[in-house]
Each structure stands twice: as C-alpha cells, then as structure tokens.
Amino acid sequence: MTSKCLFLCALLTVSATVCDAQSRKLPDKFEQWLESPGMRHASVALEMVDLTTGETCYAIDVQRAMQPASLLKLVTTATALRMLGGDYLLPDTICPTDTTKSPLPELIGYNPDWMIEDVASSYAEALEEIPDAGIELREYVKRTNEKSLNVHAEALVYLLSPERTLAAGLDTIRHYLDSCGIETEALVMYDGCGLAPADRITAHLMTQLLAEMQHDEDFCNSLAVAGVSGTVNYFLKASRLCGKARLKTGTTKSVVAYAGYVDGSDGHTYSIVLIVNSATAPLTDMRRNIEKMFNLLIP
Hints:
Elements (H helix, E strand, L loop, with lengths): L2 H19 L6 H7 L8 E8 L5 E5 L11 H13 L52 H11 L2 H10 L6 H14 L23 H11 L3 H5 L2 E2 L19 E7 L3 E9 L5 E9 L5 H15 L2
Antiparallel strand pairs: 1-2, 1-6, 3-4, 4-5, 5-6
C-alpha cells in the first residue's frame, strides 16, 4: 500500500471517529447562540450522552482543557464516596496524630493558587476543624455539592490521604480516576473545589466520571435538583425540565458551567456537561440562554 493510500485510510478513520463522537447535528439555534455577541470569543465544551443507550448525542471540543470552577467538586466528592464510603463519619479535625509534623500552611485554609477576589473571608486563616464534623459522608457530600461549599470540598482532599496534605490528597484523586479508566492527561488540580484559576478539566473527563457514578445513589442524590434546590434552585424552574435534572454548577468571573443528569421525556437518562470559558455576555443572559439550550438539546 502506498503512503498516499495509508494517509487516506488514516484520514477516513479519523473522520469516522469524529462522526461517531457526534452522531447528531447541533440545532441551528445552538450554533446561532455560539455566534451571538458575548459568545463568539468564548471557549465552549459540550458533551451529552444518552446513558440508556450509550450514544454520544452531541460533542464540542470535548478534549479541550477548560477552567471548571466548582464542577471540580464532583471529582473530589466522587472520589471520597468511592474510597471512604457513604457511611464514613467525618472526624473533628484533619490534623495528623502528630501535629508538630504538619505546619500551619499544610492545614486546610487559604491556598496561594486561589484568586483573592473569589475567596471568601473565611479562608483568611487556616482551618484545623472540619465543618459539619460527625455526620455521615453521604450527607456531607450532599451539602458540599448542593450548596457548592468550598471549605467542605477542601477538607475532603486532605482526608483522602494518610499524610493529610493537599498534594497527597490530589495525588490520591488522580490515582483513583486512573484506576477507573478515566482520562486524566489534561486534568490539572491545584485544589479540590475549583477556585484556582489554573485548574483544568475536559468535558470528556467529566462525562466519563458521570458515567462511572451514574448508579451511585449517594453521588446522584448529592446533586441539586433543577428548579427545586441548591445552586440550581431557579435554573429551569419555568421549563418542562423543572425537577427532572440533577446538576452541579460552576461559576466564577470567567466560567459558567453545568454538569449532571437529566431525565428526558423519552424515558432515557442523559448526562450533560457544558462548560463556557471567557464569555463576555452578562451572567444573567448566559444562564437564560443556557436554559434555552438545555430545553433544545434534551428530548
């Protein structure tokens, strides 16, 4: 076979892969939204999968490393549930037994990789005690994801390793994802809550995580219900999807993101990940338009 034939075969293989990854054409209104003022300079990653059939419905830039904001909490909480179990009782402190070996900067608290404008005053001093100590992990994770609590997510990172350090906890998370076959090549974690502007994740990693956790009752119940609770209390409230989506939000000055599960009118369950970075549209407009896109994409 000539080199030219080999090249054409390779090209056809790549084309087939792309077609398989996006088996449906994006609706015209979605394309128009991407080209609208406030969006045309943004980076957008989208992946929607029919979990009932395994079909990838839509895919845009699923391998691009994106700022996840609080979507990163899903990575942290999923790992904690799998490694510690929902029955695990939260201890009172994250300190190792010998606290003399754990200097104050190593305890949960202010992280120098966080943007100061995104950090609440509660991070000004290191915290040695775990918020909501003594409760079961499933309830702790529910509070963390439903209300997007940063300190709670950070405490989990420290609890995931015997060393009780940030670096060791983050390594544990990566090793767990690798063991599940989840692609971590583009994953960058400076924390467990998503405040660090250098954090990066792909839509495909998040899709793989949602597929891995779809039958984990504690994880699914930890997500806020659209139009009903948590950070999506008003999202989709006036739409046909009200009460039918369990979602985690991610929001900073440069990020608007949603990820979770949606029950379609066709009886199928879908995972959806939508991450928008660096849009110039006002946040209220972004949320209103994303609501329209959800209703457009979900059957």
